Amino acid sequence: MSAHAMSPGVRRPRIVHARGGGVAAPAAPPVVEERSRGSRRSRAQVTEQGREPAPPIKEPTFKWYIPIYFWLGGISAGSWMAATAESVAGENDRDLVRTGRYLAATTLLGGTALLVFDLGRSDRFLNMLRIVRARSAMSLGSWGLTGFGALTGAAALMQAAEDGWLGRRPWLARASRGRVGQLTQLAGMPAALFVGSYTGVLLSSTSVPSWARRERLLGPLFLTSALSSGLAAVSGLLQTFGAARPAVSRRLSRAEVAVLATELVLMQRGRARTRTLPSARRESRGQALLRGAIMGAGMVMPLAIHAARLALAADEGVDDEAVNACADALMHERDRSKRWKSTCRRGGARERRRRNAGSRSSVVSAVATLAGSLALRFLITHEGRRSARLAADTWELSRLAGYATAEMRAAGEERNVPAARGRRPRRRTRPRGEVRGVITVVQEDRIRLVTRQGRGYLFTVGKRCATLQELEQWRDTRVPIRVRYNGLPDAGARAEHIAPA
Amino acid sequence: MIDMPSGQEAERTAGTRIEPGRAYGFFTDTTLCIGCKACEVACKQWNNLPAEDFELSGASYDNTRQLSATTWRHVAFIEQFDHERFTRLEAPPVPRALAEQNTGVDDVPRDGQGERPDARAMLRNLPQGFEPWGNLTSSEQWSQPGQRWIFMSDVCKHCVDAPCLEACPTGSIIRTEFDSVYVQQDVCNGCGYCVSACPFGVVDVAHDGDGKAHKCTLCYDRLKDGLEPACAKACPTDSIQFGPLDELLPRAAARVQDLRSRGVPAYLYGTNGVLEDECDTSRLEGLNCFFLLIDRPEVYNLPAVPSRPSSRTGRGVAASALAALGLTAATLLAFGAGDGER
Hints:
The complex is a heterodimer of chains A (501) and B (342).
Chain A: E1 46-47, E2 50-51, H1 65-88, H2 94-118, H3 137-162, H4 170-177, H5 179-204, H6 209-212, H7 218-240, H8 246-273, H9 278-281, H10 285-315, H11 320-328, H12 340-343, H13 349-356, H14 360-389, H15 391-400, H16 406-410, E3 432-443, E4 446-450, E5 456-461, H17 468-477, E6 481-486, E7 493-500
Parallel strand pairs in A: 5-7
Antiparallel strand pairs in A: 1-2, 3-4, 3-6, 4-5, 6-7
Helix pairs in contact in A: 1-2, 1-5, 1-7, 1-14, 2-3, 2-7, 3-4, 3-5, 5-7, 7-8, 7-14, 8-10, 10-11, 10-14
Chain B: H1 9-13, E1 24-29, H2 38-47, E2 73-81, H3 84-87, H4 96-99, H5 119-124, H6 138-143, E3 147-155, H7 163-167, E4 173-175, E5 181-183, H8 193-197, E6 204-205, E7 213-214, H9 220-224, H10 230-234, E8 240-244, H11 245-261, E9 267-269, E10 290-293, H12 310-336
Parallel strand pairs in B: 1-10
Antiparallel strand pairs in B: 1-8, 2-3, 4-5, 6-7, 9-10
C-alpha cells in the first residue's frame, strides 16, 4: 500500500466528546446487557442515555449441547489417560483398563454425535475433513477427534475380544493385555491430551472477550477438567461395580489430587485474567454461586476426600482393609474379610460387590467431580455468551490492546495497559530520570539525544531549560550533555534540565 | 437494436475496470451518508435476501440494528441529539448575534421552579432564525455531538487477514480473485465457528433458514461480469465508493485532508495504519472495506483494535501442550509410585 508514505499534512481536529448524560452514543457507552430472543435478533435496550447499540460481535451459535460435548470429550480423554497410565506405569489392572477403554470409546462417540447435531447442516459433517488448517482450532479438533476416535474404537474392539465378546480369539486377548495393548494406549495419548484440551483453545481463538482473555488458560483448564472427570468416571464406575482394588483406587486418587490441584490454580488464574472485563465485574449472583459451587463441591471437596483417603492409607501402612474401614467408618459397618482376592474372581460378583464396594466417599467424590466438570463447561460457555452480548467487554479488549480512550488521553495516560496482578511489566526507563549523550537533532522545542550506547531519546525541551541557540550550539559541537527528564522518553518526556556534562 | 457500449459497466458507473488479481473493496465515507438505505435495499434485491421481522428497535430510528445472515448491508443510525434541548426545554445555546436581540427565552421557568413550561409557548418564543440543530456551520455540526445524526453503511470488511476464513474448518470460506472473502454455500456445513471468530459481528448462520453461514459476497457474481457491487451502484451520494484499493486509498486520504482542513475530525478505519488516528487494524493487516469516521470507533460499534483470533490458537496449543506434558508426568508418577505393596 503506497498510501503508507502519505503524511497527514493537516493536523487532525480533536474529536469532541459528548458531555453529560443527555447525549446519545456517549464517549463511554453505558453498560447494558442485551438479551437474545428466540428469533436470535437481539433487541435494543432503552437506557436513560438513549440508544444502546446492538452488540459489536455476534453471540456464539453453539447450542446447549456443545458444553455437554466438551464434557464427554473430556471424560473420554481422561479415561484413556487412566487406562494408559494403569497399563504402562501401574499394574495393568484389567478392570481399570477395561473401564477406561470402553468409557473412552462410548463417551467420544456420544460427544461426536452431539457435535454433528450442532451443525447447521449435519449431513455435511464430513466436510470438516476436506482440509487441514493449523490456524483453525476447529479444523485441528476435527482431525484430532477423527484420530482419537479411530484409536478408542480399536482399543474398545481389542478389549471386547479380550472379554470374549467377539468369540474366542486368544491371540487378540493376549495382544490386548500385552505389549500391543500398551502401545495402542501410548499411541493414543497425544490424541487424548489434544482432544481434552483443544476445546478450550477453540473457545479462546474467537473474538469473544471473556474467552480471548484466557488464551493460555482455557486449554490447560479444560485439560485438567477432562483428566479429573475421566479419572473420576473410571473410579466411580469401578467403585459402583465393586471392581476397585484398593491399590487401584489409591493410584487413581493420587492422580486425581494432582489434577484437581492444578485445576483449582487454573480457575483462579482465569479469574485474574478476566478481572477487568465488565462482564466479569458485573457477574450475576447465580453465576458467582455456580462458580463457587464448582470450585467448592466439584474441586475442593473431591480433592479433600482423595487426600484424606491417601493420608489414611499412609497412616495405616498399606493395609487396604484398614483404609476401606476408615474411609467407610462413617458410612456404615461392613464385614471385611481377607479373602477379597478370591471373591474378585469370575462368578463371585455379588460377593465381590458386597465386600469390595469400595468406599462410598469415593463414589461421592467421583460424582461431584463429574458434575463440577460439566458445570464448569456450562459456566465458561455462559461467560462467553454474556461477554459477547456486552459491548463494553469488546471495548475493554481494545483498551487492553493498548488503545487509549479519550478520558485516558485527557488524563495524560496515552496507552494504559494494566499489568496483571502480581507481575508488573518491568519498565525499561524510569518516568523520571537522567541520561547523558549527544544532541543529534534540534527542532523547535524538541531534541534527540543519543547515548554512547547508541540508544536515542526524544525529548520535549521544557521552558527556561535552554535556548534554541544553546541547543544548536551543543548539537554542532557535539559536547556531552546531561538531561534530566520527566515522563517516558520517546513518549513526550519533558527535559527539565539540560546542561553540558 | 440498442447499441451496447463496449467495455465493462463498472467503467461507467465506478470509473474503474474490474479485473481478477487486483484487490477491490469499498471506501465508505460516513460524512456523505444520508441514511437513505438504498444500499440495504439494493443488496437485498440483488442477492434475493428476505426481509427480516418488522420490529421497531424502540430506542433508535435504526430498525435494521445489525448485520445478519439475511442483511448484508446495514445503515447504522447514530443519533447524537442533545436531548436536553427538547426534553428539558432549556434555552438552547443562542448564537451571539441572536442573543443580543431580546428573545424572551430567558423568561422560561427552569425545572423545579413554578409550573411546568408549556412546550408550545416555548417554541413560539424561540428566536427568529433558530434551528433545532443549532445555528452552526456544517463543520461545526460535524465536530460536535449533540447536534448531529451520523450514518454509517456497515458491511463485511473483507479483512486482509480474515478471521472467519482462518477459522473455517471446511474450507468453505475462500478468498476470491478480487481479494474478497466469500462463503461457498455448497461447502459450508453451518458449524458457526466463523460467527464467533469475526471481530465485527458480520457473518451469521441462518438458523431459521438453510443453516449455513452467510455474509456480504462483495457481489462476487457481479464483479465477475464487470459490474460494481449493487450497494455502491445504488448509493446516491457516493458515500459507498467501490474500486481497487490502490485507487481508493489515495482518494480516501485526500478526502480526510480536505475534511481536516475544514475542521472536521476525520480519520480512516481499516487502512492498516494510514490516517488511523483513533484505531489500529494492523492485526488484521487492514480491511479491504474501510471507512472514514468522525467519532470514536465505538460510536460506530467498531472495535478500536480488532484482534486476530487465530493468533491465539498457537499460544493456546502451546500452553496446553505444556500442561499436557506436566499432567501426564504427574499421572504416570501417581500410577507408578509403588506402595511397597508387592
